[in-house]
Amino acid sequence: MIAQQDIDERTIAEDTHVERSQDHEQISILHLECEALRKQLADEKANFEAEKAKNDEENSNLKSQVSRLKAMMVKANEGISQQKKKALD
C-alpha cells in the first residue's frame, strides 16, 4: 500500500514536471512570437511615419502651389479690370 502510494506520488511528480516543462516551452514560444510581433509593429510604424512625412511634404507643396495660383489669379483679375477701364475710357 505504501509502495503503491510512493509510486503514485512519483508518477504525479513526474507528470507535474513534464507539464511544467511543456508550460515553460510554450511560454518561450509565446515570448518569441511576441518579440516577432513587436518587431513587425515597429517596422510598420516606421513605414507609416515615413509615408506620413512624405504625404505631409506633398501636402505642403500643394498648398504652396495653390497660394501661388491664387496670387496669379488676383494679378490676372487686376489686369483684366485695368484693361476694361482703359477700354471704357
Automatic annotation (TrEMBL):
Basic and acidic residues bias spans: 7-24
Disordered: region residues: 1-24
Full protein name: Uncharacterized protein
Keywords in alphabetical order: Coiled coil
Coiled-coil regions, chain positions: 27-65
Top-level division of the source organism's lineage: Eukaryota
